[in-house]
Each structure stands twice: as structure tokens, then as C-alpha cells.
């Protein structure tokens, strides 16, 4: 993320997402501001609060895709979660603090993987030595060192030469078919404990396992595996031994607090305000619980206390029934940036089918190419597919670009079924092919509702 300017972030997003320039700009600026804040003096750095974002737009226009691609760009802990999963504290379900615990767990895994990559070379050396010990055990030393000193020295020299030969065989892959027997830790040695999960208890099982892990000795079991598998097991064990977990946890908490990002999807599902005499459990209650997390509070996790003051929240929702103004005022104030994503039309569908790196037509061509079938889509066929998708969205529910999935599945249904019997074939799909396969379904609105 350090090297990416807002313009470069938008260019990266353009490779996968068509249109929605306003949303891309807002996200790019917010992501870059994470880096800018880190460059400030400490006294000012703590005063700069993140500018949280609400993305508003109908389903299927790219809100979630922006978040997914953002996760690959952001060199920071990133969590995507649905707001509708949460319940108010005191009721069965997940409470809002669980997302901070999940984000911290992700951050710990990130930091641990980076640290394991850093010690990978040393771990590989240690694993190789241990594996050679298994393949060629150390010869026993002579009982009378004085009388057989010369013999023992010659034996050691011979052993070292043989060991180096085995080392070369190992690196050349000549021992890959041999089996070795080694001891590995048995991860299933703890007693089975069932916890009825309630609010705030979703990670109780983890805490109990950590506590009991110190009470029960680590059991080991012997496994007979091939040499490459044994090398991987030993290397993983050595890497874990070389990693300083205290430093990893400290770095993980720091990353969450300073550069964590949470994408809160389906915010509109908790935005409704039913006027009732008592507090609303499912909606306003969740909003009230979200408020201190987004404002900045301290959450207790298994890795210690985590402050949420500088975590960036990006929320998204269709807001068909409710509006952002239906959120409680305190929560509205914590999302100062509002971005509206536009509904997609025929021209957008044409670009979605052609331009992105992961374009749908590229995916289908690659899938059928594995069977030796080359599929060629003509320009008029792509135009017709986009036109049908736009028409069906207008006739029924508008589900945006997701309509292209249903239409292409229906269009290529017969070809996908027969592809394995059509080796080395080339299939051209033109406008007439599309019309023949889909026009009868599209012309009947009743059938369209159930099939497309």
C-alpha cells in the first residue's frame, strides 16, 4: 500500500470493476490516508480520525467487489462481514465486538505468516538436518575412545561423506519415494467440551482450549510419510520454533489498531426504525452496539486489549426500503463520506463481459477450453447478451451484473453438457445462437421470473 497513490489504486480497481468511479476514488483516498497518517508526528497522529464511508447502491453494482479487491491491495488487516449477522448484547447470536476479535485473529495470522517466511531459509536448513538424521542415523561412538580413536575418526569421516551424498540425493529428489517415520504432535489430545454459544461466547471454545493446553501434556504420535511430506512437516515445525510469538502478537495488535479496515456489508438491513414502545432488539439495538466500536473503544480479545479508534469502517447497503437517514443520528455522524453507486445498463454489461481481467466470457472460454473446446463469442452476440440482461432486469427484479451469470448459464447449458464429447471442436456463438436459446424464455415474463 505504501507505494500506491490514489490514482494507482483506482487503476488497479479498474482492472476488475467497471465504472463506479466515485466509489473507487473515495476508497482510494481513504486507503492512502491510512499511509499518510502513519507519516505524522505521534502527537498529531493520534488526533486524526478515519473518515468512514457508506457506499449506497442497488445489488449487483460492485459494492462487495470493491471490498474484495481492496483487500488484495491493502497491506493491512481486512475483514468483510455482514451487519445482519449481529444481535444486540444480551441475546443469542454474535455481538459486534466479535468482528474486532476476528480482525485481530486475521492480523495475527498475517504477521505469523510473514515472520515464518522471514525464517523460512533457516527453518529449511534445520529441517534438512533433522531429515538426514532420520534417513542416516548417527553411528554410535566407540566405548573405548583411546583404543579406537583412529577408527572412530575414520568412521566419522566416512559417515560425513555418506551424509553429504544423501544431502545431494535429497536435494535432487532421488529420495522422494522413500518413507521415513517421525514424531508429530497430536492435536486431538484435549478432552471434548461442548459450549452452548451465546452473546459474546463465540470464541469461548478457543480460550478453554488454550487453558487446557497447558494442563495436559502434548502427546506425540508416530507417522510414516514420504520424504517430501516429512520435509514439509519438519520445516513447519522448525519455523514455528523460530518464530517469536510474543513479537507476532504485539505486531498484530499494532496493525489492527493503526491500519485495520472493516467492510460492513448489508448496513441497510439494520437501518429500519420501527416505532415501538420498547427498544428494538434487531435493528436499533445493533446500531447502538456498533456506535462505540466505530467511535473508538477498547475490546478485549485473546491477544489482549485492542483499541478501535483508528480502524477504518467502510459500510455498504442497497437502501431500497430504508435510507441512510434512518440510522440513528450518532451513527450517521460517524460515516461522513457518502458515495452513491449507479445502476448498471446495457453498455456497462458489454464492458463487464469484455474488459475485466476476470471477465465472465474469459472464465467460460477457459472452463470449456479444458475439454478441448474453443468458444468464440461474436460482437453481436455480446451485445445481445447484454441487451437481454438489461431487459430482464427491467422486467423483473434488478439484480445488476449478477443477471449475467444466470443468462450465461442458460445460454451455455447445452454446450457445457456436451463439451466432453466434442474434443478439439470450435464453437462460434453469434446473435442468432443467443436469440434461439433465450428469446422464448425472455418473451414470457412468467417464465423469466423463474428461470432467469
Task: Sum this structure up briefly.
The chain is α/β, with parallel strands linked by helices. It is 52% helix and 12% strand.
Shape: flat
Helix content: 40-55%
Q: How many distinct beta strands?
A: 11
Rg over CA atoms:
29 Å
The SS-based structural class is alpha/beta
Q: Note the main sheet.
A: 5 strands, parallel
Could you tell me the strand content as a percent range? 5-15%
User: Number of helical runs?
Assistant: 19
Can you write the helix and strand succession as a string?
Answer: HHHEHEHHHEHEHHEHEEEHEHHEHHHEHH
Describe this structure in words.
With 452 residues, the chain is α/β, with parallel strands linked by helices. The protein is 52% helix and 12% strand. It contains 19 helices and eleven strands. It has helices at 6-14, 21-38, 42-45, 63-73, 98-118, 120-135, 149-172, 204-215, 227-242, 245-259, 284-295, 329-333, 346-354, 360-369, 379-395, 402-411, 413-418, 431-443, 445-451; strands spanning 53-56, 78-82, 179-185, 220-226, 261-265, 298-301, 304-307, 312-317, 337-340, 373-377, 425-429. A hairpin with a 2-residue loop joins strand 6 and strand 7 (304-307). It starts with 5 loop residues before the first helix and ends with a helix.
Helix/strand layout:
Layout: H1 6-14, H2 21-38, H3 42-45, E1 53-56, H4 63-73, E2 78-82, H5 98-118, H6 120-135, H7 149-172, E3 179-185, H8 204-215, E4 220-226, H9 227-242, H10 245-259, E5 261-265, H11 284-295, E6 298-301, E7 304-307, E8 312-317, H12 329-333, E9 337-340, H13 346-354, H14 360-369, E10 373-377, H15 379-395, H16 402-411, H17 413-418, E11 425-429, H18 431-443, H19 445-451
Parallel strand pairs: 1-8, 1-9, 2-5, 5-8, 10-11
Antiparallel strand pairs: 3-4, 6-7
Helix pairs in contact: 1-2, 5-10, 6-9, 13-15, 15-16, 15-18
Amino acid at each position: 500500500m505504501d507505494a500506491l497513490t490514489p490514482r494507482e489504486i483506482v487503476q488497479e480497481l479498474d482492472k476488475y470493476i467497471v465504472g463506479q468511479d466515485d466509489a473507487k476514488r473515495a476508497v482510494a483516498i481513504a486507503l492512502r490516508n491510512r499511509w499518510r497518517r502513519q507519516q505524522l508526528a505521534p502527537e498529531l497522529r493520534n488526533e486524526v480520525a478515519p473518515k468512514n464511508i457508506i457506499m449506497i447502491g442497488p445489488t449487483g453494482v460492485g459494492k462487495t467487489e470493491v471490498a474484495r479487491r481492496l483487500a488484495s491491495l491493502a497491506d493491512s488487516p481486512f475483514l468483510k462481514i455482514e451487519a445482519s449477522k449481529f444481535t444486540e448484547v444480551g441475546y443469542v447470536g454474535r455481538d459486534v465486538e466479535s468482528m474486532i476479535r476476528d480482525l485481530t485473529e486475521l492480523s495475527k495470522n498475517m504477521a505469523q505468516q510473514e515472520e515464518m517466511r522471514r525464517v523460512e531459509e533457516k527453518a529449511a536448513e534445520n529441517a534438512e538436518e533433522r531429515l538426514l538424521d532420520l534417513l542416516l542415523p548417527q553411528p554410535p561412538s566407540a566405548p573405548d575412545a583411546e583404543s579406537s580413536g583412529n577408527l572412530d575418526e575414520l568412521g566419522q569421516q566416512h559417515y560425513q561423506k555418506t551424509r553429504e551424498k544423501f544431502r545431494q540425493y535429497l536435494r535432487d529428489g532421488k529420495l522422494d519415494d522413500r518413507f521415513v517415520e517421525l514424531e508429530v504432535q497430536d492435536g486431538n489430545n484435549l478432552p471434548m467440551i461442548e459450549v452452548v454459544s451465546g452473546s459474546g461466547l463465540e470464541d469461548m471454545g478457543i480460550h478453554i482450549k488454550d487453558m487446557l493446553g497447558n494442563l495436559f501434556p502434548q502427546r506425540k504420535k508416530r507417522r510414516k510419510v514420504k520424504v517430501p511430506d516429512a520435509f514439509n512437516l519438519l520445516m513447519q515445525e522448525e519455523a514455528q520454533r523460530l518464530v517469536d510469538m510474543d513479537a507476532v502478537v504485539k505486531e498484530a495488535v499494532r496493525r489492527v489498531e493503526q491500519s485495520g479496515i472493516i467492510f460492513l456489508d448489508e448496513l441497510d438491513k439494520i437501518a429500519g426504525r420501527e416505532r415501538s414502545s420498547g427498544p428494538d432488539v434487531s435493528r436499533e439495538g445493533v446500531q447502538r452496539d456498533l456506535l462505540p466500536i466505530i467511535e473508538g473503544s477498547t475490546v478485549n480479545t485473546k491477544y489482549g486489549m485492542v483499541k478501535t479508534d483508528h480502524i477504518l469502517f467502510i459500510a455498504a447497503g442497497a437502501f431500497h426500503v430504508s435510507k441512510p437517514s434512518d440510522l440513528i443520528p450518532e451513527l450517521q455522524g460517524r460515516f461522513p463520506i457518502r458515495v452513491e453507486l449507479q445502476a448498471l445498463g446495457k453498455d456497462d454489461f458489454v464492458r463487464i463481459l469484455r474488459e475485466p481481467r476476470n471477465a465472465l466470457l474469459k472464465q467460460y472460454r477457459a472452463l470449456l477450453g479444458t475439454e478441448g473446446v474453443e468458444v468464440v463469442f461474436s460482437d453481436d452476440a455480446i451485445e445481445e447478451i447484454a441487451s437481454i440482461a438489461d431487459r430482464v432486469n427491467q422486467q423483473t427484479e434488478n439484480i445488476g451484473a449478477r443477471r449475467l451469470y444466470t443468462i450465461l448459464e442458460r445460454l451455455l447449458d447445452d454446450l457445457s453438457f456436451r463439451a466432453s464429447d466434442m474434443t478439439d471442436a470450435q464453437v462460434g456463438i453469434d446473435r442468432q445462437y443467443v436469440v434461439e436459446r433465450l428469446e422464448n424464455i425472455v418473451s414470457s415474463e412468467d417464465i423469466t421470473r423463474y428461470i432467469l
